[in-house]
Write a structure and sequence with these properties.
The complex is a heterodimer of chains A (337) and B (214).
Chain A lengths: L11 E3 L4 H11 L3 E3 L5 H6 L7 E4 L9 E4 L2 E5 L4 H6 L1 H6 L1 H8 L4 H6 L2 H6 L5 H4 L40 H7 L3 E6 L2 E6 H4 L18 E7 L7 E7 L10 E8 L7 E7 L6 E2 L1 H7 L6 H11 L12 H14 L9
Helix pairs in contact in A: 11-12, 12-13
Chain B lengths: L18 H16 L1 H14 L6 E7 L2 E7 L5 H8 L18 E4 L2 E4 L12 E3 L13 H9 L8 H14 L5 H7 L10 H20 L1
Parallel strand pairs in B: 1-5
Antiparallel strand pairs in B: 1-2, 3-4, 3-5
Chain lengths: 337, 214
């Protein structure tokens, strides 16, 4: 697509300084665009694919920023930047999984501006969709990626339903593995949902990757101390080492007190329209030693039911091996194609 | 920018203006004319859709000075710096947060200025490449390092690289080459001159450590 180098089309910019004010504005203005760090938003606006009349900038709301200790764990404001998440001492010490995932997002400057709330709420990267093609996700009735000639190397292998785009977040699977809770402000009040329930697939709503409805705000993410200091594994596979979204990533938290897995949570992203918590794998490996054989079994279980498109069959062995490494360990697990 | 006067027709007394000064003068003089089409279009749009928007006089702290400019709501910092304040040292490459040429420091932290709305930096301090040298003209140690090592080819990406390096070296004054590469990984060089750039920035780091010892 031709890159347009003049200013974005005009919009009204509203800069509230409290969550309540932001909600009032969203209620009064009707359809408006919520701006967090802007790293996803500005592409849409500059390309003229989305043309909001009103943009609500959350960057002036102090209560949305920073990491706070809670009675049971920590609460991270949705507008906390990824750099702050990466560098925060408590997160590094107890919830390293999240710091590791955030550190692998995009580039240093993007992490300095991109927020944790934005990272989990960003839109799909399917280029047909982002270039403004009238696909299912854009409200149309065709998928351009799921055709014999469609460029779908980066697309879904699991749970595709008409749309084959994937969720591009790196922090999302880490938050699922840490059993995080997402705090949402709606017109009716505050609502707290489990991390895995924040994300939705096309079977629920094909135009959104998360449960936020117009007017709703993600205000914070709470991480319970349940998994503090557990054995963590995060791996992201991408084409280039900076800027790139994951082809696939895996995040796991395990508690291995005496040679066998007592508790485990594991999630992958880049495989479907929502980050997938692999419950089947968790149930199968509980009570077993975290070795190559368990990893092998886990990897095979993880990809059961996977359906490749024309150019993304590589994702099936990739996902199998990532799960194998997360559970069996990098030393133990050998890579198989 | 078709409305800018042909540079040949601008009066330019010999030997009194550098090329850079001339370009700046054209920009400052021409911006009113050149941006008129954008502004006009924007304001017509606004009258139809959202009354009350449009330009607003802002005061922004850039390079230690309070600078005033009429800024549109949808205007990016890179646009304001280059087209309203005449600070053309900040380059605009991709305009999509993918190249790093427009990197400036906001409160000491590197940001892609193509992806920051100027209205969001009202209470913050912006530092561009023009603000690095001290008032007596002494270059910043990183700038000196670039000159010492002749670190760039075309140097379009240079201001962005230098700003990213200045901020990174404050957090890590004595990096290894690979740590520095990691710190500068948000900037691209289309000449593929990374090796020399890193050498120059390593020299810059050395200069900075030397300067702080004095």
């Amino acid at each position: 697509m031709a890159v347009i180098r003049d200013v974005m089309p005009a919009f009204e910019l509203v800069q509230p300084n409290s969550i309540t004010d932001a909600q009032k504005v969203l209620e009064q203005q009707g359809e408006s665009w919520v701006l967090a760090g802007g790293m996803d938003s500005f592409d849409w606006l500059k390309d003229r694919i989305k043309k909001p009349r009103v943009v609500v900038d959350l960057s002036g709301i102090a209560e949305l920023k920073g990491v706070r200790a809670t009675a049971d764990g920590i609460e991270i404001g949705a507008m906390t930047t990824l750099t702050e998440v990466v560098e925060h001492a408590v997160i590094r010490e107890k919830y390293k999984l999240l710091a590791e995932s955030a550190e692998l997002v995009a580039s240093p400057q993007i992490r300095n501006q991109g927020t944790l709330g934005g990272n989990v709420s960003q839109d799909a990267r399917c280029w047909y969709y982002r270039a403004g093609w009238p696909c299912y996700r854009a409200g149309g009735n065709i998928c351009y990626a799921d055709t014999p000639e469609g460029r779908n190397r980066e697309h879904a292998i699991l749970h595709a339903d008409r749309c084959v785009a994937v969720n591009p977040s790196d922090s999302a699977p880490a938050l699922i593995a840490l059993d995080a809770k997402f705090v949402i402000r709606t017109a009716k009040g505050e609502r707290v949902v489990d991390a895995e329930d924040y994300f939705i697939g096309p079977e629920i709503d094909i135009t959104r990757l998360h449960i936020l409805k117009p007017g709703d705000l993600l205000t914070a993410i709470r991480i319970p101390s349940t998994w503090a200091g557990a054995r963590f594994y995060f791996e992201k596979v991408r084409d280039r080492n900076v800027w790139d979204f994951p082809l696939l990533n895996v995040a796991s938290a395990m508690v291995v007190p005496s040679g066998s897995i007592e508790r485990i949570r594991i999630a992958v992203n880049g495989a479907a329209a929502r980050p997938l918590r692999l419950k089947v794998v968790e149930d199968a490996v509980r009570g077993k030693p975290p070795n190559a054989a368990t990893g092998e079994m886990a990897g095979k279980l993880a990809v059961m039911g996977a359906v490749p498109l024309q150019f993304n069959a590589y994702k099936i062995p990739l996902m199998r091996n990532l799960v194998k490494r997360a559970i069996g360990g990098v030393q133990e697990a050998t890579w198989t194609s | 920018m078709s409305d800018i006067e042909d540079p040949k027709t601008i009066e330019c007394p010999p030997n009194t203006l550098t090329r850079r000064d001339l370009i700046k003068r054209v920009i400052v003089g021409g911006v009113a004319v050149s941006s008129a089409s954008y502004l006009f279009r924007a304001s017509t749009l606004l009258r139809q859709s959202a009354p009350g928007t449009g330009e607003r006089l802002l005061t922004i702290n850039v390079n230690g000075q309070q600078r005033r400019a009429d800024v549109m709501k949808q205007e990016t910092l890179a646009w304001t710096l280059r087209h309203k304040l005449g600070l053309t040292g900040t380059k605009l490459g991709c305009d999509r947060a993918e190249c790093g040429s427009c990197t400036v420091l906001i409160d000491g932290v590197p940001h892609y200025s193509c992806s920051v709305l100027t209205h969001t930096v009202r209470d913050r301090k912006v530092l561009t490449i023009e603000g690095l040298a001290s008032s007596d003209g002494t270059l910043h140690p990183v700038q000196q390092g670039v000159i010492d090592e002749q670190g760039f080819q075309c140097a379009f990406c240079m201001p962005g690289f230098i700003m990213a390096a200045v901020a990174f070296l404050k957090t890590n004054p004595n990096p290894t080459r690979s740590e520095l590469a990691q710190g500068l990984s948000g900037n691209l060089c289309r000449c593929q001159d990374y090796d020399k750039i890193l050498t120059a920035m390593m020299r810059g780091a050395e200069n900075m450590r030397g300067a702080s010892r004095v």
